[in-house]
Amino acid sequence: MSKFKFSVGPWNVHAGADSYGPATRQEIDFDTKLAKFAELGFSAIQFHDDDAVPNINAYTEEEIKEKAAALKKKLDKYNLAAEFVAPRLWMDDHTIDGGFMSTSEKDREYAMWRAYRSIDIAKELGCDMIVLWLAREGTLCAESKSPVWATKQLIAAINKMLEYDPKIRVCIEPKPNEPIDRSICGTIGHVMAVSAATIDPSRVGGNLESAHAILAGLDPAHEIGFALAMGKLMTVHLNDQNGIRYDQDKTFGVENLRAAFNQVKVLKENGYGDHGEYVGLDVKAMRTTRDEDSYKHLENSLSIFKYLEEKADKFDYEFQKKCVANRDFEALEMYVMKLLMGVE
Ligand code: GLO
Ligand code: MG
User: Fold this and answer.
1) Closest to 267 in 3D by CA, of 301, 308, 304, 302
2) What's the pLDDT tens digit per position in 235-291?
3) Are 206 and 174 in contact (CB under 8 A)?
4) Strand pairing category for 44-48 and 6-8
């Protein structure tokens, strides 16, 4: 029995289209996904603002709240909580050059409108967290935007969100690149610095995604550990990634098993989840996956996480202490490899 609670976003189940080709599976409607997520054992759902209220631009602020309230009823039916709402600031015509740090003032205002609506939606859904994946916040052309100005824009936008609602927490999901070239907030270290520069650092933290850390050339478990040490790991997006290439969102643990084990271990050792935090997944099925296997990558990610949790439960801390005392890291490393391979 896992000690953790798990969350997932509806975009984790998608039809397989990529930049190079069309869909390979049928679209699955939102209600069917919710029912299946509940059946698979997820406790909470992650939302983009327009997952919660599709076609959001077409509605007034009041209408958006009403639609969010209706969604809350649907979630209750499945006994699912809402974990966070994330303004999707990368799809809209107003955000082609970014949101909070767009070079257009009108577009920056639009981005704030989406951020405020996300807060309204979150409140209706009974959650207090806004995730900012800063997809297009940075530059495609280095000279087009001052990184100093852009960083200050981000801090100002977060401050406005914190002022808009006294309870809301802002959780930045850092990523070093893609779809932009140079991002403004590429790692958990950047997130901590931005947090410290806001009007209420206690309400600004991070969402560490395994693949994003690997894209930055870093070890996800260490990034998680850094955020935990600062008391600012608000959620995680576990997945996997084969080296520094396009963002892959692979099933958790399938590329870097030892690194995955260490992510589970550091979460477990530090009481992650004790204050209601969820273990969030952000995984994609392969393009070749068939319709009937549309949820397999989620099932597999959950199973791998739980198997690794069992390995972490078994971890022999006495032996580890002995190895450390003798500085025998060869023995410790081999112990970990045998534990993972199931070799006695
Ligand atoms: C993409 C991100 C994306 C976000 C999601 C929530 O690289 O990982 O999936 O996590 O949009 O904001
Ligand atoms: Mg993510």
Assistant:
1) 308
2) 999 999 999 999 999 999 999 999 999 999 999 999 999 999 999 999 999 999 999
3) yes
4) parallel
User: Catalytic pick from 48, 94, 212, 297?
Assistant: 48
**Ligand that comes closest to the CA of residue 135:** 1
pLDDT tens digits for range 123-162? 999 999 999 999 999 998 999 999 999 999 999 999 999 9
| Atom number in ligand 1 closest to CA 178 | 7
Residues at CB less than 6 angstroms from ligand 1: 86, 131, 133, 173, 175, 209, 237, 247, 282
C-alpha dihedral sign at 98, 82, 72, 74: positive
Calculate ∠ Cα 251-256-260, nearest 5°: 75
Full-model pTM: 0.98
- Please identify every residue whose CB atom is under 5 Å from ligand 2, which is an ion: 209, 237, 282
| Helices and strands (H, E) in the chain, number of each type | 12, 10
Q: Any idea which ligand is nearest the CA of 172? A: 1
Helices marked H in the chain — which ranges? 30-40, 49-52, 61-77, 105-125, 147-164, 188-196, 210-215, 220-229, 257-269, 296-314, 317-325, 329-341
Annotation marks residue 48 as catalytic? yes
